[in-house]
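The material for today's practical consists of a large collection of protein records. There is nothing in a record beyond a sequence line and a structure line. As an example, a complete record with its sequence and its structure tokens follows:
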Amino acid sequence: MSEKLPDHVLDSRQAAALPAALGLPLFRPRLPWINGDLQTLRDTLRPEPLPPDTGLPVPISVGGGDQLLGLLDPPLDQAEPRGLVLLMHGLGGSSSRSGLRRMGHTLQHAGLAVLRLNMRGAGPGRELARGTYAASCNSDLLPALARARKLAAGRPLLGMGISLGGTKLLNGLLAAPGQLDGLVTISSPLDLAASSAQIERPRNRIYKRWLLQRLVAQTLADPFGVSQPERELLEGRSAIGPITSIRAFDAAITAPRWGYQSVEHYYREASPLQQLRARPSGLPPTLVLHAIDDPWVPVDGARELAALQLPGVEVLLTAGGGHNGFHARCDGRGTEPGNWGDRLTARWFDQLLRDQQTASA
């Protein structure tokens, strides 16, 4: 009787088919970024050199006098774009983060225009809107999708979300199907309660502290101000003492700001997997990429999504890659920019557009 192979070996074998179909090798980590933590930290420790940010500012009205800020980048060859990609940052991120800009640069190289969207309170859009975003913030996202559709000018509109950016896109599309012609998510939380528990593990205390510091600073920087009770909570001067976890931050700030009764209610209702279990997806053609060694977001949600076998939804699990890492041995070879995850996304979009063009011919 043969010995049962570990889950990660089986997943790696299954994961070989899609990259091979797109002309990419199976993901293998690039030295010295050999494990999930190093993959996760690579963009912070050694960001890729990128050209100056020349994105065209695109203000997007979301009601109440608030605006989101998008930055529009044309294809690198300056030809007519094949489509437009709405590119979404993750928790604590913005349009300026090096990993997001590198992804956008790769998509531009593939002949696509890119709209890098700053969600409420993020990055260079901080001055334009009060408050902060959530994993489900459709009252902001749906106007942004409508504006992106107009900017696409009849061309395909695609979505790409990194980490919580993918969660936000999934929630928006489940609430209002038909907004996108294709979607890629990378390292995105599908079950918020499980992801919150994961980041609270003792091994992740440095990650948690970094994320929490960014969230608190982003909230306190609100030019429209914060309430006195919120300020006391964020500055650790309330009766309950300082906020020491992402869950506590969500309980004190995110859930009440977005109308949820509790943090449990928020995590349940804003988890895409909760909705996908209950009904057919209504999603456009979708690729979900997740690494088994992701230290931030557990792989179980992606595995369950794969088991649901939803029409048009592909789930690609890799043994390595960390959280938004996917820095591979094959990076830097040839003329195509970006890391393995960037190139996979660009090639998947390319194949999708070719298939859609063929279908409509």
About this structure: The longest helix spans residues 340-360. Residues 53-195+273-360 form a domain with the Rossmann fold fold (CATH 3.40.50.1820). The longest strand covers residues 56-63. Strands lie at 56-63, 66-73, 84-88, 113-118, 157-162, 182-186, 286-291, 313-318.
